[in-house]
Specification:
Elements lengths: L1 H8 L5 H34 L3 H50 L2 H6 L2 H43 L1 H8 L1 H39 L1 H6 L3 H53 L5 H43 L20 E9 L4 E10 L4 E5 L6 H7 L8 E6 L2 E2 L5 H6 L1 E5 L7 E2 H6 L7 H10 L3 H6 L7 E2 L8 H15 L3 E5 L7 H15 L3 E5 L11 E6 L2 E6 L1 H7 L2 H16 L1
Parallel strand pairs: 3-10, 3-11, 6-9, 9-10
Antiparallel strand pairs: 1-2, 1-4, 4-5, 7-8, 11-12
Helix pairs in contact: 2-3, 2-5, 2-10, 3-5, 3-10, 5-6, 5-7, 5-10, 6-9, 7-9, 7-10, 9-10, 14-16, 16-17
The structure holds adenosine-5'-diphosphate (ADP) and magnesium ion (MG).
Length: 577
């Protein structure tokens, strides 16, 4: 019921569409009732009294009546459907917006494909349900009320007899509805798995081909599809059971009416015409009632979907603005991790990490993979919050800043060179939305991207991303750097920004990075130690702890883990080069 009320609340802004549709429903219901009512006078006047005038008027009246009904029906359908669609659109927008505000942790827990499925399939299912229900309630509800009026008017005792069966139909309808709701939820979960597989497959298509995984993936896909079918099959079964059960129960009502009504007619207490009008109204009445009961099952499906959608809407971000944020303009760029302990789940990933970077310093994080380097970086922009200790910028705990203010202090370049559909200029401008063309170009020059951009077919206006030209890894990386340069944030995080590149692009990118790093406090994780030899400070991490700190020379002299990593890499490196 809660979910239902919530669903209804979304249609509030579109109340006038609903009102138009409702008024039109009265038109439709009214004509239906009128038709049923008219059976009696028609039969009496035309066939009993042989009234020629009525006979002449009748065909015209029928046409007019149905024309009127047609217009009403159009208005009713059109306005209720658009209202439903608008409400659903709001829900879809809200889910999208809400997910955007959720923390990285949420996105790690929920596969991309499954999230997409919630926004596409689940919301779609809600839409079907809502449209069915509202049109159903309006059209069939109003029609039913009108027809009820007629049968009570004709013969109230007979009406009562014909209706005693209706409450009985509610019992199976409710049982079936409950099953359908839970099955619908489960089938949507399976649909989420299907989308997940699709998403994974299409983004990993190269690996699938190279490792000959196609058959295996097809098998997995078939199995998931099959398991979706298992659930949807049950939904269909209950859906299909609904109608026959109702009809059989209603047959009792019809039988009773014929029995009792026939006796009334035979004994002369009711005219045959009135009886016919009654039976026509009753026959017409069962159809909207059946549809209402059917609508009930599609409400259940919609509710199942709505519960899943509201789950996402209700998800509270664990990274939020503080109640009383400290204001910070442009930070100087001092970053400090003070006794930081952190775990993603239960396992401790960082233990008592303390480290400071003064304004403009370059701090390099090195260590074996899994040491916690990326984790350290992700604590600074609050992708995650520390478990214990604190992260400070200019001496202010990052948790006491507004998230937007914090993000304004930080530029990030990592291995994943994310570019969006749009032109090159647009992609660079993501760094600063109001940047002038000159600023964009200056950033591109500093990122050593200007030259290759000019060689593109349309220069800065060349479309890139999924639907545009393909760029090399180094070119993509330099665009990401240009974007970061344009953002001009005091703190810079570079996570293995050059590790995916060949030596030549690496050289270019490294020069671009040097421009980016100038006058910024920089944290850099580099797989290749050659890129960090000149860092002000090298922090060596192992198993979530800082094991050594110093400059390249100091650490080499100390002969610890850094020395080991260094020797390993440079002996190998020389062998290769
Ligand atoms: N999103 C995550 N959820 C759970 N554990 C994670 C997550 N990301 C990283 N880890 C774990 O945290 C540890 C440190 O990882 P990471 O900081 O990525 O190391 P590095 O960057 O030094 O290679 C690893 O043991 C890794 O398995
Ligand atoms: Mg890493």
């Amino acid at each position: 019921m809660e979910t239902f009320k919530r669903l209804i609340r979304y249609s509030k802004p579109y109340w006038w569409r609903i009102v138009i549709s409702m008024v039109a429903s009265f038109g439709v219901g009214g004509t239906d009732a009128a038709v049923a009512y008219l059976v009696e006078p028609l039969m009496k006047r035309i066939f009993a009294e042989k009234n020629i005038v009525i006979f002449m008027i009748l065909p015209v009246a029928i046409l007019v009546l149905f024309l009127f009904r047609g217009v009403c029906r159009f208005l009713q359908d059109y306005f209720i459907r658009t209202a439903g669609q608008l409400a659903i659109q709001d829900i879809r927008n809200e889910v999208y917006q809400r997910t955007m505000g959720l923390s990285i942790r949420f996105f790690h827990r929920n596969p991309t494909g499954a999230l997409m499925s919630r926004i596409v399939n689940d919301v779609g299912q809600m839409q079907d349900g809502v449209a069915n229900v509202v049109t159903g309630l309006l059209r069939d509800g109003v029609t039913a009320v009108g027809l009820l009026g007629i049968i009570f008017y004709r013969n109230w005792k007979l009406a009562v007899i014909s209706l005693v069966v209706i409450p009985i139909t509610a019992v199976p309808a409710q049982k079936i509805g409950k099953r359908i709701k839970s099955l619908s939820k489960q089938s949507l979960g399976r649909m989420g798995e299907i989308t997940s597989i699709l998403q994974e497959t299409f983004s990993g298509i190269k690996v699938i081909k190279a490792f000959g995984l196609a058959d295996r993936k097809v098998g997995e896909f078939r199995a998931t599809n099959r398991s979706f079918y298992q659930f949807i099959r049950k939904t269909y079964k209950y859906d299909a059971l609904n109608a026959p059960i109702m009809e059989v129960i209603m047959a009792f009502g019809i039988a009773a009416v014929i029995w009792f009504g026939g006796k009334e007619v035979l004994s002369g207490r009711m005219t045959a015409e009135a009886f016919f009008s009654f039976v026509v109204a009753m026959g017409m009445l069962y159809s909207p009632i059946k549809k209402l009961l059917n609508a009930y099952s599609s409400v259940q499906k919609a509710l199942g979907a709505a519960e899943r959608v509201f789950e996402v809407i209700d998800e509270r971000p664990d990274i939020t603005d503080p109640a009383e944020p400290v204001t910070l303009g442009r930070a100087r760029g001092e970053v400090e991790l003070r006794n930081v302990t952190f775990s993603y789940e239960d396992e401790c990933v960082l233990r008592s990490v303390t480290l400071t970077a003064r304004k403009g310093e370059v701090v390099a994080l090195v260590g074996p993979s899994g040491a916690g380097k990326t984790t350290v970086m992700s604590l600074i922009p609050r992708f995650y919050d520390v478990t214990e200790g604190a992260v400070l910028i200019d001496g202010i705990d990052v948790r006491s800043l507004r998230v937007d203010d914090l993000m304004a202090q930080i530029a990030l370049v990592d291995q994943e060179t994310i570019l969006f559909n749009g032109t090159i200029a647009e992609n660079i401008r993501y760094g600063k939305s109001n940047a002038t063309d000159a600023e964009v170009e200056a950033a591109a020059r500093a990122a050593f991207a200007h030259d290759f951009i000019l060689e593109m077919p349309e220069g800065y206006a060349t479309p890139i991303g999924d639907r545009g030209v393909r760029l090399s890894g180094g070119q993509r990386q330099r665009l990401c750097i240009a974007r970061a340069i344009l953002k001009d944030a005091p703190v810079l995080l570079l996570d293995e920004a050059t590790s995916a590149l060949d030596t030549e692009s690496e050289h270019m990118v490294q020069q671009a990075l040097n421009n980016l790093m100038a006058n910024r406090t920089t944290f850099v994780i580099a797989h290749r130690l050659s890129t960090i030899l000149h860092a002000d400070r090298i922090v060596v991490m192992d198993k979530g702890e800082i094991v050594e700190v110093g400059t390249n020379d100091e650490l080499l002299a100390a002969g610890g883990l850094y020395r080991k990593l260094y020797d390993m890499q440079f002996s190998q490196g020389e062998a290769v080069r």
